[in-house]
Amino acid sequence: MTTPMSGTTVARRPYLLAGILRPEVRRTLISIAVVVIVWEVLADYVIKSDLVFASISSILERAWQMAGTGKLWTNLRVSGTEFVLGYSAAAILGVVLGIGLALNRSFAQYVEPWMSALYATPMIALAPIFIVLLGIGIYSKITIIFIEAFFPIAVNTSLGIRSTDRDLIEASESFGASRLQVIRTVLLPNSYPFIIAGMRIAVARGLAGVLISEIFGSEAGVGNMIWFSAESYDMPTLFTGVFILAGTSIFLMTTLARFEKRVAPWRA
After folding, report:
1. Rounded distance, CA 79 to CA 215, Å?
2. Is 11 a residue whose pLDDT tops 50?
3. How many CA within 13 A on the CB side of residue 77?
4. Domain extents for the chain?
5. CA 54 to CA 40: how far, in whole Å?
6. 180, 196, 199: which is closest to 89 by C-alpha?
7. Ranges of H-type helices in the chain
């Protein structure tokens, strides 16, 4: 005799299986398998040098060893804390400043030239200055990550606000909406895709900030791990750090893309 609960479970299994076997999922799995096979062939039969390349198997083995000793988790905790604090501050202040730049042209004329100058300056040239001023502790790392991630969010927010259809603003004002209500119900929803696009760009720049800040001065972290493993030609450890940064970037960008579909469904 089949209970309602068991019937529900059985009914769901084909759906889950169909979800796993969707065409886009199959293509992704096939592409990953091809890359892994090609990578292993290059490592074992073409390059054949542990000083300049590492096989996937050796990378996984090194990651397992580092996880067992706790070193991997320490590096992840340090870099993760720096990135979360720096990126979160950049997201909040970037959106606020972007709104201010879009709504106040006089303010924008004072601020935008300096933003353009800082945005165009390579962070690798500024990082030593922040390390000297703030030390090798967490504050210099957060500052560097913040600056890297801040500008794409602020610029895209400002662009999104300015691109709002003027007819929508006038229509809401004609119904008695206050300035704050116009911002909350018209300007911000219209700019969501722009803001999220800026946040996706900021993910890559923020992770680059993690690497840059930890190269110039740190005692732990993924960037520190990559730098010292490169100096010692420890390729498995180096690629472990690279894969961590790449995987984090893919996960965050995918999450933001799904979030965009939720807050701006008309974009789909």
Report:
1. 12
2. no
3. 7
4. 4-47, 56-267
5. 9
6. 199
7. 4-20, 23-41, 56-69, 71-103, 105-120, 123-134, 138-162, 166-174, 179-182, 188-216, 222-231, 235-263
CB atoms within 10 A of CB 251: 11
Q: Give yes or no for residue 267 having a pLDDT over 70.
A: no
At 212 the three-state DSSP class reads helix
Secondary structure of residue 48 in the 3-state scheme: coil
Where is pLDDT greater, at 199 or 111? 199
- What per-residue confidence (pLDDT) applies to 55? 83
* 91-116 pLDDT per residue, tens: 999 999 988 888 888 888 888 888 88
Q: How far is CA 150 from CA 92, 146, 171, 208, 235, in A?
A: 9, 6, 32, 13, 32
CATH architecture label of 56-267: Orthogonal Bundle (1.10)
∠ CA 195-198-201 to the nearest 5 degrees? Answer: 155
pLDDT on residue 20: 55
Query: Which of these, 187, 183, 182, 184, lies nearest to 164 by C-alpha position?
Result: 187
Helix (H, G, I), strand (E, B) or coil at 51: coil
Residue type, 232: S
Amino acid identity of residue 31, one-letter, is: S
Q: Amino acid letter at 71?
A: K
Q: State the pLDDT at residue 31.
A: 84
Distance in angstroms (rounded) separating the CA atoms of residues 127 and 140: 8
